[in-house]
Design a protein that fits this description.
This protein is mainly alpha-helical. Helix content is about 55%, strand content about 5%. The chain contains nine helices and four strands; from the N terminus they run αααββααββαααα. Helix 1 packs parallel to helix 7, helix 5 runs antiparallel to helix 8 and helix 6 runs antiparallel to helix 7. Its main location: membrane.
């Protein structure tokens, strides 16, 4: 549609400028699709936190774990998994000739996020089974008393760790994807849009909780006192929404064609070290910005397979 704006088609703009704008337009749908992911991510400070407050936080010897401290397992998962993903998983897929492209990595993160909510829902069901409503465990957190289950709060570790795993594949890769698939002049804009999506995701999370609370008032799924509601249904709903978002993401990603960053610049302005190889792919001598910050050695394969096909 914008081809008519190119000089080669009688338009007023340089071809590489038009190609850059078109590339940004093609990436924008993914900015919207990651919003639901960030809505799931924000559950660590919403539903997960409410769940933590009503679980046994004692470690023995009179020592209690702050309910908010469970977030540390999200960070620990990231610290442990980054070198594993960077030095083992990505290189293995590259050696098999099936590199994990940017969009595949983002999709894997979506899957981890979905699983985290399913696990959280299962934990919530189990938590209530260990809740003695007649004689509950009463614990004081932040000056407030909570009727808690005897189930240890550390049972939540898997759901926090799964969110951490999703960050490695989705959060980091979306920024790499935005940076790689945009011309230099628009890299900041596209990166900013992906960062803005995280803020919108938090708002969407708040909106979903408010809608669910209002819609299920007679038989609540979300309330100030989660012991009196079916929060597991809310968690499964969020998992379903994330799964639906993943399906839509797969459809959009299937039709996406990766762009060669070199084509966004005028040929005359591209240094010898940045020129494309004879196969049209970016040279391995190109600046690091052309490549995946995780694995500079293999990003050429991650962006464009050697057989020239368009990857997911």
């Amino acid at each position: 549609m914008l081809s008519s704006a190119k000089r080669s088609h009688g338009g007023d703009f340089e071809d590489h400028l038009v190609d850059g704008v078109v590339s940004v337009i093609k990436v924008i749908p993914f900015c919207f699709l990651v919003i639901m992911y960030w809505a799931i991510y924000s559950q660590m400070s919403n539903t997960f936190f409410a769940q933590s407050e009503r679980m046994d936080v004692s470690m023995g010897g009179g020592v209690n774990v702050p309910a908010a401290a469970l977030n540390v397992f999200n960070t620990v998962a990231i610290i442990i998994m980054i070198p594993i993903v960077d030095r083992l998983i990505y290189p293995c897929f590259n050696k098999m000739g099936k590199p994990l492209t940017y969009l595949k990595r983002i999709g894997i993160g979506f899957i981890f996020a979905t699983i985290s909510m399913i696990v959280a829902g299962i934990v919530e069901i189990s938590r209530k089974e260990y809740l003695d409503r007649a004689n509950p465990l009463v614990q004081s957190l932040g000056g407030q008393n909570f009727s808690a289950s005897t189930m240890s709060v550390f049972v939540q570790i898997p759901q926090f760790a799964l969110v951490g795993a999703s960050e490695i594949f989705t959060s980091i890769t979306t920024l790499e994807f935005a940076y790689n698939q945009a011309p230099v002049a628009m890299q900041g804009l596209l990166t900013g849009l992906f960062l803005a999506a995280s803020g919108v995701g938090n708002w969407v999370s708040t909106a979903i909780l408010a809608i669910v609370e209002s819609a299920t008032e007679g038989d609540p799924w979300w309330a100030d006192e989660i012991n009196d509601c079916k929060m597991e249904n809310l968690m499964f709903l969020l998992a379903g929404l994330m799964a639906l978002d993943f399906i839509i993401f797969c459809i959009v990603a299937h039709y996406y064609t990766y762009q060669d960053p070199a084509k966004f610049e005028k040929t005359a302005e591209v240094p010898v070290s940045e020129k494309s190889d004879t196969d049209g792919s970016p040279s391995n001598d190109a600046p690091p910005s052309y490549y995946n910050t995780f694995d500079n050695q293999h990003t050429h394969d991650a962006v464009k397979p050697s057989d020239g096909t368009t990857p997911f």
